[in-house]
Design goal:
five-stranded parallel sheet, 37% helix, Rossmann fold, globular, five-stranded mixed sheet, 19 strands, Threonyl-tRNA Synthetase, Chain A, domain 2
Length: 553
Amino acid sequence: MNEEKVVLHIEGEEKEYPIGIQYLEIAKEYQSNYEDDIVLVSFDNRLLELHKRVKKAGAVSFITTAENAGKKAYRRSMTLLMQKALYNLLGKEISTVRVVCCISQAYYCELPNYKTPDEEFLMKLKAEMLRMVDLELPIMKSSVKTDDAIEMFREYGMPEKECLFCYRRSSKVNIYSLEHYIDYFYGYMAAHTGYLKYFDLLLYEKGFVLLFPGEKAKEVAKFEPSAKYFHTIMSSREWGRAMGVNTVGTLNNVIASGRMQEIIMVQEALMEQRIGGMAEMIAAKGNCKFVMIAGPSSSGKTTFSHRLSIQLLALGYNPHPLSLDNYYLNRDQAPRDEDGKLDFECLEALDVEQFNRDMSALLQGEEIEMPSFNFKTGKREYKGKKLRLGEGDILVIEGIHGLNDKLSYMLPKESKFRIFISALTQINIDEHNYMPTTDVRLIRRIIRDARTRNTTAQETIAMWNSVRRGEEKYIFPFQDDADIMFNSALIYELAVLKAYAEPLLFSVDKNAPEYKEAKRLLKFLDYFLPVPGEEIAKNSILREFIGGSAFHV
C-alpha cells in the first residue's frame, strides 16, 4: 500500500513528505543550511514545535536559536532543564526554584527552600544539566484537563501555577514533561535537551544566574549586571510581595475579590512619594538647571516629566517640561538604518547642535524660541513660544538620549540631574515564567500609537525590532550613568491594557509576518482578568497610553 504524501514548500522548492512525519526529521535535512540550530518551524505562518507532525500541504520555514522566537524557546527549555536538574539533586521537598527576573542575558534565580547556593553546589548543578544535555532527553508536550493540571501542580509544590489556572477559561492546558518532571510554560519549547548546550551558572546576590547566549546563538553572553537596575527591580518586587501580589494568579485573586481599587490607590501613592523624593534630591543639588530623563520606548517619560514638574512646583521651583522629540531633524533629513528605513532611534536623528545652542543660551540667561515637531508633516515648527530661565526655573527634558553626554556636550555636568526610567515588571506569570519588560512596553506602545499616531498594531510590531536594536545601542549602555533609576511599571497595568490591546491585536492580518507576535501577545493577555480603565487616575502614567491624561499626552 502506497504511503500518502503531501507537498511542502520549503526554501523555494517543493518536496513530498509522508503525512505524519515529524518536523524534527525534516529540520535535520535542512540543518546544514543554517549556522544556528533549528528549534521551531513555521507552517503557513503558524509557529509549531518540532515534535509536531505534518498533516497537510503548506509552506514551511525554519526558526533558529538566532531569531527572537527561537531564543525564547531556548530560554524556556533551559529553565525546565535547570528545574529538572535541581529536582534530581535535591528532591521534591527542597528543589523549588524561583525565576525572579532577567538581568543582563541571564535569569536571576533563588532557592527559597534551600540554603544560599555556593560554588560547589553550582558545579554539581551544571554537571547534572550537562549530563542531561548529552542524553538528548525528549521534552514532551501533553494536553490535560485544567482541573487535573491544578492537582498536578499542587503535588509538585507549585502554588502559583495552581492559582494561575484557577482563572483559566479553557478546559485544557498544555503541560511539558522532562522524564517524569512536569511544568507549564508560556510559549514553545525545544524538542529535546540536546539543543541546550550553551549556558553557564554564576553566583549572584542571594541566589545565582542562569546565563544564556546573547547575540551569538552558540556563545554564552558575558554577564554584565547593572547594580542600579537590579536594586530597582528587586525593591519594586518586594512591594508586590508585601501587598500579596507577585504573580498573575495572585493579581487575579485581588481583582476577583474586589480589592483592586485599594491596590491602584496605594501604588499610585507610592509612585508619587518616590517622584516627590526625586524632586527633593534635585532641590538639594542647588545648581541644577536641567533634569535629563531618559529611558526606552513607552516607559512613560512624558507623564513622568509632568509629574516631576508638579513636585518641583510644590518645592517652589518653576519647571518647564520639554520633549527631545521637538528637536528631531525634518523627516527628509533623518538618517536611515541598515535596512534603509528611517531611523528615529539614533542620536543623529536629533538636531544636536541646535539643542546645545539653545540650552547654552538658556543657561546664560538668554531668551530663545522653543521648537515643536509636527509628526504629521514630519517637520520642526516654531510657533512663537519663548523661554528664558530665571533663578527658580528648571528645564525638565525627556527623551531616549537624555543620559548620553554627546547630546548635551556643551552643558556643565553640575547643571544636570539624570534620571533613567523604564517599565520593569513587578510580577511574573508564575514561579518559572518570567514576564519580559519588553512585552509590557510593546503593549503600551501598540495602544498609544493607535490612539495618537493612527498606527496599526501590525505596523507597531513591524517596527519593534528596530526600536529594540536602537535601545540596546543608544539607551541601555547609559543607564548606569543616571543619578537615580525609576520604575514606571504598575503592578496592575496589563489587566487594564488588556481591553485596549486585544481589539488592535485581533486586527492583525493572519497572513502577515507580524501575526505570530500578535497571537503570542493575545495569549499572554488571556492570563489576566480585566480591570476597567475608568478606575485609573487622570495623572497616572497609564493615561499616557490609554488616553484621558490630565497632562494631555
